[in-house]
Amino acid sequence: MGVTRRQRLQEEFKRETSDILQKMKDPRIGFVSVTDAEISQDLRHVKIFVSVFGSDDEKERTLAALEHARGFVRTELGRRIRLRHTPEVVFRLDDSIERGQRINQLLRSVATEEGADEPR
Question: Structurally, what CATH architecture does the domain formed by 3-95 represent?
Fold first, then answer.
């Protein structure tokens, strides 16, 4: 399968999953943002990476709720994206946004310390 087709499918899975999650009325699912989707070479599995705003406890509850709704999400994806077989959906927590914020915070603190150490 061509790389461009896989990339196109990954973007479509990302977009459609985001839309499905936004329309779900499950109160256990907090503020969720779909950050990425990775589909396997054989199109049998798709990993959906989500970023959850909230405490660690809220993140765990949201991920558990997403795992519970996995069958519904897969069914909806099958209706929206035409493939011979709808891939098995797996949700993964994506903490790259938090790591990026932490790195920025560290860089700012280093820059502030360096500015305070220099004589004026």
Answer: 2-Layer Sandwich (3.30)
